[in-house]
Amino acid sequence: MPGEAFIGVIPNAQRKKNMFSTETFNIVVTNQRMVFALATSEMIKAEAMSHKGEGIKGAFKAMTAGYTLWRRYTGMSPDQAMAETPGNFCVYLNQVRKVKYSGGKVLFSKGGVSVGMNVNIGLGGGDDDDNAKLEIETIGGKYQFEIIASSQQQTHQVLKAAGLIR
Which terminus of the chain has a lower count of CB atoms within 10 Å, N or C? Predict the structure, then answer.
């Protein structure tokens, strides 16, 4: 699209597919739209296999392939991301009515280590306490996702840069 500028990627956004399973999307955000790129098991396997023969470091990269798959979208056009799998879809920013994000506030981050606080303290319980909620309300419906703790700071930064949250 003319004038479309890449803002960032919201990694590993999970939503319920049905009662027993979830699906994971990497959300490519531009100044015009959000492309929801479905992470398939075939993609994760291919990413893991790309590190075969790299020794211990490669084995570790292969184990985390599902969590680092989002990085591929930083060098890909939004149109390429959209066409990657049949499960991908997009939402134009002018169709977004409201975005709610309950992510934790990170006080300090260095490399892979983050120290912060969860702003959801006391709200709910169970195993999902570390997950943030992302709700995107559009003129066509609502999309609800959970964001794992390691992706919350990046999600906040991308949403803020896109002007979707304060």
Answer: C
Q: How confident is the model at residue 126 (pLDDT cuts 50, 70, 90)?
A: very low
Q: Which residues contact 123 (CB under 8 A, 6 or more apart)?
A: none
* pTM recorded for the entire structure: 0.78
Q: Is 52 exposed, middle or buried (0-12, 13-18, 19+ CB in 10 A)?
A: exposed
Count the Cβ atoms, other than its own, within 10 Å of residue 76.
Answer: 16
Tell me which fold the domain 6-161 belongs to. PH-domain like (2.30.29)
CA angle, 150 then 127 then 41, to 5°: 60
CA distance readout (Å), 136 to 60, 118, 145: 34, 20, 9
CA separation (Å) from 21 to 24, 127, 164? 10, 16, 28
Residue ranges of the domains in the chain? 6-161
Contact 61, 54 (CB under 8 A): yes
Joined together, the tokens standing for residue 95 give: 């169709």
